[in-house]
Amino acid sequence: MSRLDASGIEQKWQQRWQDAGCFDASMQSDKPKYYVLEMFPYPSGRIHMGHVRNYTLGDVVARTKRARGFNVLHPMGWDAFGLPAENAAIERGVHPAKWTHENIAGMRDQLKSMGLSYDWSREFATCDASYYRFEQQMFLDFLKHDLAYKKESWVNWDPVENTVLANEQVVDGCGWRSGAPVERRLLSQWFLKITAFSEELLTALQSLDRWPDRVRTMQHNWIGKSEGARVRFALSDPAAAGADEIEVFTTRPDTLFGASFIALAANHPIILGLADGHDGLTAFVEECNRMGTSQATIEAAEKQGFDTGLTVDHPFDASIKLPVYAANFVLMDYGTGAIFGSAGQDQRDLDFAQKYDIPLRPVVLPDGHATDEFVNEVISSGVAYTGDGTLFNSRFLDGLRVEEALPAAISKLEELRRGDRETTWRLRDWGVSRQRFWGCPIPVVHCDDCGIQPVPEDQLPVTLPDDVDFDTPGNPIANHPTWKHTTCPGCGGKAERETDTFDTFFESSWYFLRFADPNPDIAFSREAVNYWLPVDQYIGGVEHAVLHLLYSRFFTRALSVCGYLDLDEPFDGMMTQGMVCHQTFKSSDGQWLFPTDVTRQGSGDWVVTETGATVDAGRIEKMSKSKRNVIDPELIISEYGADTARLFMMSDSPPERDMEWTNSGVEGASRFINKVWRQSQADADRPMAEAGQEMPSALDDEAKTLITATHQAIASISEDIDRFRFNRCVAALYTLSNAIADLKGNSESQNWARRFATENLALLLAPIAPHIAEEMWANLGHDTMVAQLSWPEADPKWLVKDTISIAVQVNGKLRGTIDLAPDSDKAVAEELALALPAVQKILEGNAPKKVIVVPNRIVNVVA
pTM for the complete prediction? Predict the structure, then answer.
């Protein structure tokens, strides 16, 4: 028997699929549509194992749905703008466009080598003007509909990358790429009004029942609806503060009698006014600005404050004065830029109060505690009480439960005209300005006489210059000698183009709509969107659970407002896959090593392959270039074949969990691919019936057993694919292959059963390992392609079991099992259960008090 040539087989079938147009999508079909989409990749130059897993998951779904009679759209493109291309341009002296398109060409070949069932005719790159011209038009329509605006805002500034960073791009106070400490700066920025849809985005999460609960919870928390009160604290000395009052939003007005201090953001107007001419406060503000605006970073930092010397009057009793501090943990862009510290009820406030010797005022008493005892406990332990309870030390609120005190406190504030009931949101408008070159130009110009003017639609797209200089620090298009100089479309006078470019999330917030309609003259047609959208199954990493998914949900709503479409939710189903992990290795001098650099000596120590030097084998972690615990998919595909890589990715663990890449696992998958290929080739030891032959009228027991196993495999794999339990699908494929191998006889019925099982094995294997499935089908004498065949259906009559296993319990504890025909008489079940030796031993010859028989499920003996 010849040796399996995986590479040759895979290239052959990939070409045949392409020639036959197997995966080209069209709306001209009477089949129900199904839109499968994996989050498209950034063209970094090479695919990694995370890509292999993500895109194989989507391909399994797409191929299965196509076989089940759906008209499937399964496209691929490139999320091609971003800083890496700009950094590469600086390092290599090449234009980002050239670098990007070379990477796309390489990655396209790699993805095609995986045998993915994409409609490549719909491919696009977001960095191409043929794509971003349409989003420039969308932005102008957002302006017309009051969904885009420009304002000054405090931002995270990366001094090395010279660009604004989103809060999520700030890691431990540093830029996610540069590692440089982030600064806080006040810049004029473009924003999209996502907050106009806050309530709708929150409420609609309830309808996304095919999204993981974890993702919906993350979005719910990010949107962050809060009911509370806006409280006005009158300043005791308005002249010194330059203001009459300080406004604070709080969700806990019931704890106002526990207020110990007021804390203001370092950029609050009152603080900035006081800092003028005050060296100490100025230095404190500058120190706060070096923290950036990331809430996570600020929460993790040590809490620092500066006593301004100001005080405010308590809203319920003006004789109570509260000190006013500038604090590094309060952000100007969240709420009102001010908080009141209720030190007994909030741990952060308590830590701050104890650090600056501010008195504590606990006001919520846990059930079962005495007041004096509890106050002393909080003060001595330094632990705030954040739970439910009864109000005390709170005058008119004393004795009320927290849920009763909240409305009572708000009503009192409104009565005294010191506050109002209010709903606020954690969600902030989306800042889309980025001070970098490799992004979509924002299509507006600035005129001294006319102000901001949109670029006329007939002048779109506004494209990036080809002659760009990256040697000068800062934004290359802002530094370009001619690009930004233009004429005002309003008055015809001199004007300058906007030199900021869009955040790259802008492109990825509507790309799924573009795939629906590849017409080069329009962004997409309403007809195509109405046909293909929403995406039936979206697949990607949980790291995009908040921003990308939330921005996409906003975009469809904003585009609906602008008249582009009639769609709210873009993604009907969502699956988040886990990470691909590998063990880490370090040399004796602390340098990270690639897995290909090391060898294990038997089952003992790891050593450097070339030198034999000792290696420190570390933890199993997410594959990352920085730790070199990566495996190049191209090497695996060239050595074992794409089907082996695909099969292993599906076999190790459920898709939502992290998986470990192991050589032994890959080799096991390769052995299985070779095994099923051999099983598809009939010989003297494994004869098969002719293709298309009818089932014999008489079947022996061995044939029946294999036919039953085949139908069971069809049923279980069909169900498990629907539930994304792909690892169980692989296990069922292994079981069916073993059942075929166990059939040793050569009778007519066994030869028929062998062919029947092997043909179905090929069909069931096709979504996961499509090349070998096609080769098996051809080996079995067929001239059709599996990619164009229907999914097998299990025959219910072969799924009926002759016997079922019933658990037997004694006093609720399992003591054994009995095998019965389905729906057996209760008396039969009771007799067999009582005859079990384990049951007789417990009964000691006595009759049981009661025997409870649940048909087909359990027998419970009460001794």
Answer: 0.85
